[in-house]
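Q&A log
Question type: sequence-to-structure
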Amino acid sequence: MPSDHLVPATTMRDSYIGFLILAGLGLFSQWAIMIMNGSLRLMLLTAWTSIFPDGIPLREEWTRIWIVDLAIRVLVAFFGAVLNVFESHEFGPYLCLVDLITTIVVFSMMFLVEDRRDRRKGALRFPSCWQLMLYFFGAASIVPIYIRLYLKSRLSLRLEVPHNQARALPFTALWCSVLSLPLLLPVALGASLSQIQIGIVVWLFSPATVGPFQDLLSTLMSKSNDVRSSTKEAAQPIAIAYAFAGVTSIGRSTEYGAAQVS
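Response status: OK
Response body:
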């Protein structure tokens, strides 16, 4: 690569520090503020007692593994409070959640694409783990860390997605969009609180299906099509997948917002 195309090392180090600062600010804005206003204590108390502050029961057992069930109850308590629009009559938090979840779909595709570039080594592997970290620790603190690792890895070594994997990505983008429905749709349909809680848990574990779904489609396509193509042709399905995820995110957020305004 010509020297005039190289990014100075000091500039990249400054960029890395900037992303770490963003991650710290994200962590503070989520958890420190929750500690200060008491909402974290209420969330943990709800998970421990299995009762929301307004008396609504929280399901105790999901896996019959106590520590796993406790972690699930913490997340169900968090999302359940946001989704409890019938009691609070406040749709603002729900609409913010719709926007956040549909945006996460875009990052889900990024996690998958970068994993498929190199599945043998590097910190950008295991897209399901990255997505679960978004759920547990918050996108504001995890996304800057991922982007920092992405820049550090991909600016030094550019790898191509295998052609059969690339061709399957638009369909996986559709699947990722469908996976957000168990979280968002029950509230819109007026489901019971127990059904809403089940939807939350289904959504929490849904990232585990993305990798196998992608691999199954890529295997089928490799058997039914000639996967030999140019780099430019392989990049087209990736662009389509990102475009679909982005348009779906915008469309769904706009649709929910218009429905509530009307």
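Response note: The two ends are 56 Å apart (CA to CA).
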